[in-house]
Amino acid sequence: MGQWLPGFGALNPGSLYAKLRKQFDYLTDAEFDDTEFFNYRGVWYAVSDFIRVVATPNEHLYGWDGYNSESYFCGVVMKYNYDGTVVVGRYCS
After folding, report:
1. Smallest Cα–Cα separation from 24: which of 5, 37, 13, 7?
2. CB of 79 within 8 A of CB of 87?
3. What is the pLDDT of residues 29-49, one digit of tens each?
4. Is the dihedral of CA 72, 79, 27, 2 positive or negative?
5. How many domains does the chain have?
6. Which end is more exposed in the chain, N or C (fewer Cβ atoms within 10 Å of the end residue's Cβ)?
7. Contact between 2 and 34 (Cβ < 8 Å)
8. Same domain, yes or no, for 21 and 1?
């Protein structure tokens, strides 16, 4: 979560908090502090930017909790684990 990032409060301009706050400037301060973030292949993602997946067993994204499209054909999928970790992958069609 934003409030758990090193440099919380942006007191240190070179901190991870300050870097991500600049990248996700469209979020309000309260939204940013409550949003969860993860890094996948060197790119930071906000969980709030993912679209929830409600798929039946026969559909392509079944088993994933959300997706974020990077183009018309490709994107990133994520799944929450019970221990608080996130499993992330890519999809292409």
Report:
1. 37
2. yes
3. 888 888 888 889 989 999 889
4. negative
5. 2
6. C
7. yes
8. yes
